[in-house]
Fold this sequence. Notes:
Layout: E1 3-8, E2 11-16, H1 32-54, E3 63-65, E4 69-70, E5 93-94, H2 100-115
Helix pairs in contact: 1-2
The chain binds iron/sulfur cluster.
Amino acid sequence: MKHYLSTANHMLYLQHLKKDGGFHSNSKVIEKEQLQAMHEFLNDKITEIGNEMTSGKTAIDPYNKNQEQIACTYCPFNSVCQFDPTLPDNEYKPVMSLSDKDALSLMVERVKKNRGETN
Ligand code: SF4
């Protein structure tokens, strides 16, 4: 069994290759095209958020994933932040629970749509 190093989430993982040179089903790897789609999706998202900010949208809407993961829980700005979920205009932004595979599919789909490509 061969080993090699790959990067994901800024960490190094030791991956195992099958005898035929392919990856095991539990290997955390993606195709080059998927990685490019992720980069493009993130660049589009950064641009979108930047454009919203420069056009005056400064709403505070921290994410809340099923009441289990809330952005404010470990936020270093919690003590000075004005967000108060008991106020009528302060609402958490719900976040969908997606598998890695489904999230990647949605990103690829969105990038294709932004490029004007059809499925
Ligand atoms: S505490 Fe304030 S700055 Fe921090 S995540 Fe929550 S809303 Fe955002």
